[in-house]
Specification:
By secondary structure, the protein is of the alpha/beta class. The chain has helices spanning 12-17, 26-33, 51-62, 99-116, 126-134, 150-156, 162-181, 201-205, 226-232, 234-242, 251-262, 283-293, 305-313, 330-336, 341-345, 354-357, 361-365, 371-380, 401-415, 422-435, 438-449, 462-475, 512-521, 526-534, 566-569; strands at 40-44, 86-90, 141-146, 186-193, 210-211, 263-265, 302-303, 349-351, 385-386, 394-397, 479-486, 489-496, 500-508, 538-547, 552-561. Helix content is 42%, strand content 15%. The two termini are 49 Å apart. Mean pLDDT is 83; it is low at 271-287 and 289-297.
Length: 571
């Protein structure tokens, strides 16, 4: 058995001292602490992506805890581990009941940090207290700030709290200005958060702050790369494969499914994979890279570390949606309602890079909403991620099945006329697809479509029906691709479960026979037949016709190819 896996401990010292599993990220720590060009850094990442653990690791480094790093990358370098006073702030749990409570909780945090470092500060404004604390040491200090944006984004999730948010922002403006004015007293500064709030003084005043959020050199600093997953979770992977309930026939098949469900975050849109040196890769290694990352991307993609930890910690080998378990960004999902549902669900939405650099969550929360701002927020909060190499607009997509199903389910629930009851429809549809019960799936799809208003189901827009159909399939949590390219055209929807493959063609005001004939005539299914035979899967060719007058499915036709008959079918 390997080391114990935990998702509830964010202290680097506790992980190492208790011999819990720690995926070594100290190479990135070394890059930061050994950087002579810059010592002030900022990095944004979605919630539960290891930001607090990274901050804790930096704290241990700057406190000189060399003994904790003897088996890790930074422990093999020439780094001196010289100790410094460390001022470690965590703004995730500040009291937001009122402005007075917020101010007092921030003051108390400053007092506690002062006491931990053998210093004393008087009870004045938070900015003044920080200024005095920075000047209380003969040596330079290290400042670590975790979840810097949490107070502002949390308060904006409430109703009618703009005035409190503005007071909090003004307090932080004074607080951060002291970091700039005491620059010569600070050895190292690292700030993390989910979003980059452009109107916070931290970015306007601190012109020496290096933002590594989209730096290709740090794209793998948070989350797990494919190589890290296979090296650190090898025993856990083997345990899943040994389970009698595991539906996968090989390690390769299991890892491919695991990637689809939990992997796919990209935090840079340029650069080569950190998973392997592309220039020195063998032909087989390049093929493996392209299978994981896509033919043209070769950008390090990473797994959500908490989802991976929770998956391998539970006994069931079935993939589950842990994203909602760790908390939902209420603000992000609610704001997504302000733009067209189809703009969010449609794959490969693009947004200019300026949408990220000028992001202002307070303005969109107060009603000044633009599509690009909402997409930027969905990126920051982890519902969307970067896709592909680009020197122009950033292309966004869902990172994986887990997030796609979670977000799409939440969104269609808010759009549907029956609210939370739509989740029951999604669950029934998922089970029908997993079992190959097409008639039951079509019934649930009809119920689903009847739950949307006529304004959303425009009579003249076939694409709206297609995307709403796709939304239910994505929300089901199965492996779903829309507009799947083949050598003879594009499949409207491709759905894969452990035992079934659905190839679906949809027609608007045409017959289901016509849709089914298009699949057969263009041989959309041929490329999947060998795979179906080797994995004992049933292939379903499904033609669906929509009616504009009924605003729903009018008819459907199906052809089933069982795995035993694949060879005869291809003759």
């Amino acid at each position: 058995m390997g080391r114990q896996i935990t998702t509830s401990k964010f202290s680097f010292e506790q992980l190492i001292m208790n011999d819990w599993l720690y995926v070594d990220k100290t190479e990135y720590v070394w890059k930061l602490v050994n950087n002579h060009a810059s010592t002030f850094f900022f990095c944004s990442r979605p919630r539960r992506f290891g930001k607090s653990l990274f901050i804790s690791t930096l704290e241990a480094v700057f406190k000189g805890r060399k003994e904790l790093f003897k088996d890790l990358y930074i422990g093999t370098t020439e780094y001196s581990f010289r100790p410094y006073p460390v001022l470690h702030f965590d703004f995730s749990d500040l009291d937001l009941t009122s402005y007075g409570d917020f101010r007092e909780s921030l003051q108390q945090q400053i007092r506690n940090i002062a006491m931990e470092n053998g210093a004393w500060v008087d009870n004045s404004s938070p900015g003044t207290m920080l200024d005095n604390l920075l000047k209380a040491f003969d040596d330079k200090v290290v400042v670590l700030i975790d979840e810097f944006d949490a107070p502002v984004t949390r308060i904006l999730s409430y109703k009618d709290e703009d005035s409190l948010a503005e007071k909090i922002r003004q307090t932080f403006s004074s607080f951060y200005s002291k970091l700039k004015s005491n620059e010569d007293r600070i050895r190292f500064l690292f700030i993390t958060g989910v979003t980059k709030l452009s109107n916070m003084s931290i970015f306007s005043q601190m012109n020496n702050l290096t933002d590594i959020s989209m730096d290709q050199g740090f794209a793998g600093a948070f989350g797990y790369t494919q190589k890290e997953l296979e090296e650190n979770f090898d025993d856990a992977i083997n345990e899943k494969l040994a389970s009698d309930e595991c539906p996968y026939h090989s390690r390769r098949e299991f890892l491919a499914a695991l990637r689809s469900y939990y992997d796919g975050y990209r935090f840079s849109n340029c650069g080569a994979s950190s998973f392997i040196d592309i220039e020195k890769a063998t032909a087989d290694e390049v093929h493996e890279i392209e299978e994981i990352y896509g033919n043209s991307n070769r950008i390090p993609s990473v797994y959500n570390p908490v989802s991976i930890g929770m998956y391998f910690s539970q006994g069931n080998p079935a993939f589950m949606n842990f994203w909602d378990w760790t908390g939902v960004s209420t603000l992000a999902v609610e704001l997504a309602k302000s733009v067209n549902l189809l703009d969010i669900v449609e794959e490969n939405a693009s947004v200019s890079i300026s949408a990220f650099t000028s992001f202002d969550v307070s303005s969109i929360a107060s009603g000044s909403v633009s599509r690009s701002a909402v997409l930027a927020l969905l990126y920051y909060t982890g519902y969307l991620t970067q896709d592909g190499v680009s020197t122009g607009p950033v292309t966004l997509r869902f990172p994986d099945i887990e997030v796609a199903s979670s977000f799409t389910g939440s969104l269609v629930t808010r759009y549907s006329l029956s609210g939370n009851d739509i989740q029951t429809v999604i669950d029934f549809a998922r089970n029908a697809l997993k079992d190959g019960r097409t008639e039951d799936f079509i019934h649930q799809m009809k119920v689903y479509l009847s739950n949307f208003s006529y304004e959303l189901l425009d009579k003249d827009r076939e694409r709206q029906y297609q995307l709403l159909f796709l939304s239910l399939c994505v929300a089901s949590g199965l492996r779903v691709e829309g507009e799947k390219h083949t050598d003879r055209g594009r499949i409207d929807v491709l759905i894969e479960s452990p035992h079934h493959i659905y190839i679906i063609e949809m027609k608007f005001e045409d017959t289901a026979d016509c849709a089914l004939s298009q699949i057969s005539d263009r041989k959309y299914h041929y490329r999947f037949l060998n795979d179906a035979a080797s994995r004992n899967k049933t292939v379903h060719l499904l033609g669906i016709s929509f009616s504009c007058s009924e605003r729903n499915i009018r008819e459907w036709k199906e052809k089933i190819i069982i795995s035993e008959n694949v060879a005869d079918y291809m003759k």
